[in-house]
Amino acid sequence: MINEQYKKMLEGKSVIRQLSEFATARGKEIGYENVYDYSLGNPSVPVPERFTEVMIDLLQTRNSMELHGYSPSVGIASVKDKIAASLNKRFGMTYTGNHIFPTTGAAGALAHALRCVTKPGDEVLVPAPYFPEYSCYINLTGARMKVVPADTERFQIHMEKLEEMLTDNVAALLINTPNNPSGAVYDEKTLKELADLLVRKQREYGHDIFLISDEPYREILFDGIEAPYVSKYYDNTLSCYSYSKSLSLPGERIGYVAVNPRCRDAELISAICSQISRGIGHNCPPSIIQLAVAEVEGLTGDMAVYETNRNLLYKELTELGFECVKPGGTFYIFPKALEEDAAAFCRKALKYDLVLVPSDSFGVPGYFRMAYCIDTQKVECSLPALRKFVRENY
């Protein structure tokens, strides 16, 4: 008999994916250059040439089995050592290779981290707005996702609401900074307040509360803003990272869990993750990709286009009367819709070939997301359509 839980999920297909499919189909009708597709966060910056050079060198100089054979279940030791050294140098940490567990992207990292520190029935708190797939990642472990209402003034964490919800049943808190969909970067004040609260609640309840930090946009920052490294502020932190955005490698599915060395059972967690893999089939990523990213660790693509696009859209949106928190990073902007029903707002925009994502699935009603990881020329071409849409409807 087919699993009814997964069968039911077919009815709740990702809105983002549905809109992306609409944009593709519409593009076949009128030319994709005429569809202003802000639906999918698929990096548009070219992969750095250095990564391509490394791949070619590996293929020409390394043993075939080293490149294409199974890696150890905990990942390739030399890769883990290089990642640890890079994090230590950049963020003042004390990782060793034993604290790093390579995964198939940030999704794979979250799959392991959540199972490592929760059991069925536990609660995991997630501040809104959040990436919609978190509900699948969490609830399918047997834990239960609880949404902390958003601070819509700055899109930092709503600390009062968080404290109200931080009960004895909470095993973990999952945060995302820089944030998808808001583009907000959690500042040091937020992270210090968060750490103080979690430490206090751990003492009160007599058990660990883990902080899982989802960090795929860590290097996409604007206006000279720096993203504080979350693990520096709270001992029981697991950092989940992906090279999908920094190196424009989403299709390679490569990332890692970095276990704070001061974390409870830090030396065990990587090994535990390898056992989790046995149960979920989320085994180590390809050996060649592990070896390649280790050689370019800390390198990023030229992401200046994202800041250019952010500036164009923020200026246009605010001049048109939209309320909008200016993104400090990522390649997303999250304005308030011009009517309460964000889904209705986005349906109207489709008539102008503007593909916008309503905010309901992000846990904040009345907003919409634009993923501006597209060519700047296309952003510029979309602005007259945006003006016409607003003028004719609002």
Q: Could you characterize what this model shows?
A:
It is built from 14 helices and 12 strands. It is an alpha/beta fold and 394 residues long. The protein has 2 domains: 136 residues, Aspartate Aminotransferase, domain 1, CATH 3.90.1150.10; 227 residues, Type I PLP-dependent aspartate aminotransferase-like (Major domain) (Aspartate Aminotransferase, domain 2). The chain has a 7-stranded mixed β-sheet with strand order 2-8-7-6-5-3-4, with helices on both faces. The protein has a 3-stranded antiparallel β-sheet with strand order 9-12-11. The protein is globular and about 60 Å long. The model has no long low-confidence stretch (mean pLDDT 96).
Task: Summarize the model shown.
The protein is α/β, with parallel strands linked by helices. It has 14 helices and twelve strands.
Q: Which descriptors would you attach to this protein?
A:
394 residues, Aspartate Aminotransferase, domain 2, 3-stranded antiparallel beta sheet, 12 strands
